[in-house]
Amino acid sequence: MNRPDVTLPSHERRKYPRYYVNTRLTLAVEDESLQESIGLGDPADISLGGLRVCNLPACPSVRVGDQLGLLLVDQEEALSLHGAVVHHATWDTFGVEFRRISLAEQLAIGGIIRRQYS
């Protein structure tokens, strides 16, 4: 069973710890510059600062710097966020840093993380 204190390796220098995501979280991704959906993907891990996207069919066409709209949905909440692609780790994963995030959105992300481990 996963626990909230289980994060990625501690040698990573991050502002916020990342938490692995299980299958109870859905992610819809939109290209904000084109204002069109680019599909459903899976968040591989999440933090208060961003997330890693995997299993998105359009992943190869996503580029560093792309501005994305993200809809995170778990069994209790749907949360709309904005982010920028900050790295493309592999051909099928990329990292997104949340942008223009409010305190209420940070609290909602924290709730989603807690529910992942309950």
Q: Can you put this structure into words, describing what you see?
A:
The protein is globular, with a radius of gyration of 13 Å. With 118 residues, the chain is mainly beta. It has one domain (19-116): predicted glycosyltransferase like domains (Thrombin, subunit H). A six-stranded antiparallel barrel has the order 2-3-4-7-6-5. It contains one helix and seven strands.
Q: Could you name the key traits of this structure?
A:
disordered N terminus, Thrombin, subunit H, six-stranded antiparallel barrel, mainly beta, 118 residues, globular
List the helices and strands and how they pair.
Elements: E1 19-20, E2 26-31, E3 36-46, E4 50-54, E5 67-73, E6 78-90, E7 93-99, H1 103-116
Antiparallel strand pairs: 1-3, 2-3, 2-5, 3-4, 4-7, 5-6, 6-7
Strand order of the largest sheet: 2-3-4-7-6-5
Whole-angstrom Rg: 13 Å
Proportion of helical residues: 10-25%
Per DSSP, the total helix count is: 1
> Under CATH, the topology is which?
Thrombin, subunit H
The major beta sheet can be summarized as: 6 strands, antiparallel, barrel
The global form is globular
Task: Note poorly predicted spans.
Answer: 1-8
Structural class: mainly beta
Task: Specify the CATH homologous superfamily.
Answer: predicted glycosyltransferase like domains
Assigned CATH architecture? Beta Barrel
User: Would you state the CATH class?
Assistant: Mainly Beta
Distance between the termini: 10 Å
Mean pLDDT: 86
What is the β-strand count?
A: 7
